[in-house]
Amino acid sequence: MCDQFLGAENVRKAVDAVGDGDVNATARNSPDRLAAALTLEAEKWSSGDLLYRPYSACRIDIPAESDGAYVIEAKVKWSALTVDSMREPKYAKSWRRVNDQVFVEQEAGQPIVTLLVACGIPGAASEQESELPLQMTLMDPGLGVGQRSSLLSTFARTLVDELACTGDPVVPAQLLR
């Protein structure tokens, strides 16, 4: 089911880049079930809520030559950050604006990238779209920028489509530089 979130070709290329062997891919929910859970949370949201449950959309364990494993994991939750907070100096230093609705943060020296998408949910409070953006995180074993960007972009577009976000956020294929 990880293919449904990240794209079959993207998953294959990422696995090939870091190792081979018996890959263990785990996805507890399908995209539509995950979207249903996120929609329910957004509909119940009110201004001031700050704690949101993270959902692991997909985890891929790839055997390493040593006893360990390489891990690729995609998670999603509603963010405590707001779209407006991305203009504040403390966030503007680390978050890059991709467009009016999409922001990306790549931690220096870390194989983690986070994406915020302004995603309004029909039936939620009117301010939900700007005050409660969707936050997606991709952790990987150090993939190249192109592969990391493809995985995260596909993940984000899959969820934006499943959630039928109002405002039609545009998640470009190339998120990272």
Strands, helices and their partners?
Elements: H1 2-6, H2 8-18, E1 24-26, H3 31-44, E2 55-63, E3 69-78, H4 89-92, E4 95-99, E5 102-106, E6 112-117, H5 128-131, E7 134-139, H6 145-163
Antiparallel strand pairs: 1-2, 2-3, 3-7, 4-5, 5-6, 6-7
Helix pairs in contact: 2-6, 3-6
Characterise this structure:
The protein has helices at residues 2-6, 8-18, 31-44, 89-92, 128-131, 145-163, and strands at 24-26, 55-63, 69-78, 95-99, 102-106, 112-117, 134-139. The relative contact order is 0.20. The protein is 32% helix and 25% strand. By secondary structure, it is of the alpha+beta class. It is globular, with a radius of gyration of 16 Å. It starts with a helix and ends in a 14-residue tail after the last helix. A hairpin with a 5-residue loop joins β2 and β3. A 7-stranded antiparallel β-sheet has the order 1-2-3-7-6-5-4.
What does the radius of gyration come to? 16 Å
Q: In angstroms, what separates the terminal alpha carbons?
A: 28 Å
How is the main sheet built?
7 strands, antiparallel
The helix count comes to 6
Unreliably modeled segments:
none
Strand order across the biggest sheet?
Answer: 1-2-3-7-6-5-4
Structural class: alpha+beta
Instruction: Give the integer mean of the pLDDT values.
Output: 90
How would you concisely characterize the structure shown here?
By secondary structure, the protein is α+β, with helices and mostly antiparallel strands.
Keywords:
177 residues, alpha+beta, 7-stranded antiparallel β-sheet, 6 helices, 7 strands
